[in-house]
Amino acid sequence: MTETVLTHPDRMVSVREVFGIDTDLKVPAFAERDDHVPDVDTAYRFNPDVTLAILAGFSRNRRVMVQGLHGTGKSTHIEQVAARLNWPCVRVNLDGHISRLDLVGKDAIVVRDGLQVTEFQEGIVPWALQRPVALIFDEYDAGRPDVMFVIQRILERDGKFTLLDQNRVIHPHPWFRLFATSNTVGLGNLSGLYHGTQVLNHAQMDRWNIVATLNYLPREEEVAIVLARVPGKNYDKGRQLIASMVAVAELTRKGFAAGDLSTLMSPRTVITWAENCEIFRNPALAFRLSFLNKCDEVERPIVAEYYQRCFGEELDESWMRTSEAQ
Ligand SMILES: Nc1ncnc2c1ncn2[C@@H]1O[C@H](COP(=O)(O)OP(=O)(O)OP(=O)(O)O)[C@@H](O)[C@H]1O
Ligand SMILES: [Mg+2]
Fold first, then answer.
1. Are 28 and 82 in contact (CB under 8 A)?
2. 39 and 89 in contact (C-beta within 8 Å)?
3. How many domains does the chain divide into?
4. Which superkingdom does the taxonomy of this entry point to (predicted)?
5. Secondary element (H or E) of residue 255
6. 139 and 246 inside one domain
7. I need a labelling partner for 61 at 20 to 30 A (CA). Which of 198, 205, 207, 276 fits?
8. What pairing do the DSSP bridges indicate for beta strands 168-170 and 161-163?
9. Residue 43 is part of which domain span?
10. pLDDT(107) > 50
11. Does 92 share its domain with 186?
12. Residue of minimum CA distance from atom 30 in ligand 1
């Protein structure tokens, strides 16, 4: 991996100017970008509360977890804040395949001067710890318990990290930062939506200094996010269409909360639906392909009714069944 250009932030930037939030706060940032700084997504819309929480993580060395339903923009939010601060950033997906060795490091055979030798190769945790890097543990609640205990050690601010095999203690770089995203709050899959998540150890949850929540946003804000992603719809009729789509999504979320549906439409799905509308030029067909086909067959009539309520037109009956040749 390439080295970071700077070892510490060398300027302060105004939160008002960079993130458009009404505050006089200034936060440290880097002047130069290296390969690990995520690309700026100019269409990204920052949620003020979550942004301030993430900024506290960067400027005050707080351990920040962003929690919320799927597809609400958690992972991208942290990356986009880092992108604006030119802060190098590494995202690790804590799915079931990540092992302790991936995080800590392992002995590997390398060829040196024509000879095969065994050499310790640092995992991502010791690598990041020694650099001004923001390490993001994505899908934190999906991590296996043995993996989570590796992380526990670095959750404390001065958390030193011991490489047992190496007999070496690593002190965290003063500008190393740690973030996580998760769908649950560590209490397991209570809603039934997040199969594969784990109940987290509470001694570990306790070590996160800030837990910010990013759930669904007010309708106008969600419409603005979808329009930012699909600017081709930014004209009168297009905006109305997106508003109706967001209205359908809201009904699925209410239906889910009331127990009528076992699934719900995330902002990510609304964006996909809007993109598919551009491809198929038919909102109903795009709806079927982006969301309806993911729903349980018995729940499709309910979802179709939501569509009818928001769009004033019926969905094709044959779409309610998967068994039929379509
Ligand atoms: N505020 C926003 N502005 C612009 N785009 C957004 C915003 N929020 C979400 N998106 C878009 O929605 C999609 C989903 O975002 P992201 O992957 O960050 O969600 P997530 O909350 O991490 O989801 P999951 O829980 O499934 O991991 C991305 O394509 C992202 O660009
Ligand atoms: Mg994510």
1. no
2. no
3. 2
4. Bacteria
5. helix 236-257
6. no
7. 198
8. antiparallel
9. 11-213
10. yes
11. yes
12. 73
